[in-house]
Design goal:
6 helices; 2 domains; globular; Alpha-Beta Plaits; 11% strand; alpha+beta
Length: 221
């Protein structure tokens, strides 16, 4: 009798373990499905022309690629390219070491198309600069971006940017002020400067009445 009870106990334990594994597998599948659905929903989301959007673009795995000024300059050139060729309006921006924020609007070209082309343009320029430059991290960076491309199967040889650009519609003045303050205070919170307007790769100085230096802006009144 005691032996049968032990055998039944072991069998119940095996069943409970198998059930737990199935639950975990189902949970992992659901999470993967939701992540893919979120990415797809952002890709095909309808964005409204002439409205203000807060966007965020991040380097894969939060790599500090943009810590050097000449990499930041490529992002500036990317904005200029989209202003000229895609009719993008840049109202505010900040470029940090591994991501950048901006408040933008657009006319006819869909925002998703503009940001796709912005990513392509900057990715190509960044990779070429890494290859031709003297960055001590050159080999590591190229391997990192090559591995990311193989994992995601997006891009031809390298993947620099995370998927998406996380657009947030700024529907009222409170949201606009909150995002402007958040954007301009990024370098202060990171300990890079004491005052937002002292950070070069930001629009904060323009909002303090100083002339635009890096990028022509459509300031928000």
């Amino acid at each position: 009798m005691e032996l049968k009870e032990r055998q039944l106990g072991k069998q119940e334990l095996r069943y409970s373990r198998a059930f737990a594994m199935r639950v975990l597998a189902i949970f992992a599948f659901i999470m993967l499905f939701l992540i893919k659905k979120l990415q797809m929903s952002e890709r095909y989301k309808i964005h409204v022309a002439h409205e203000l959007y807060f966007i965020t673009v991040t380097v894969i795995d939060w790599v500090d690629l943009l810590e050097k000024a000449y990499y930041k300059d490529i992002i500036i050139n990317g904005f200029k390219y989209c202003q000229k060729e895609k009719d993008l309006h840049v109202h505010a921006f900040v470029i940090m070491s591994n991501h950048y924020h901006a408040i933008v609007s657009f006319n006819n070209t869909p925002l998703s198309d503009i940001m796709r082309d912005m990513k392509k343009y900057t990715s190509k320029q960044l990779i070429n600069t890494i290859k031709d430059g003297t960055d001590s991290r050159k080999v590591w960076l190229l391997k990192k971006f090559e591995f990311a491309q193989k994992q995601s199967q997006r891009g031809k040889y390298y993947k620099v940017w995370q998927d998406g650009f996380h657009p947030v519609l700024l529907s009222d003045n409170i949201m606009i002020e909150q995002r402007l303050d958040y954007l301009h205070n990024n370098p202060v919170k990171a300990g890079l400067v004491y005052k937002p307007e002292d950070y070069v790769y930001s629009s904060a100085s323009s909002y303090c009445g100083l002339p635009d230096t890096l990028l022509k802006l459509n300031l928000i009144d």
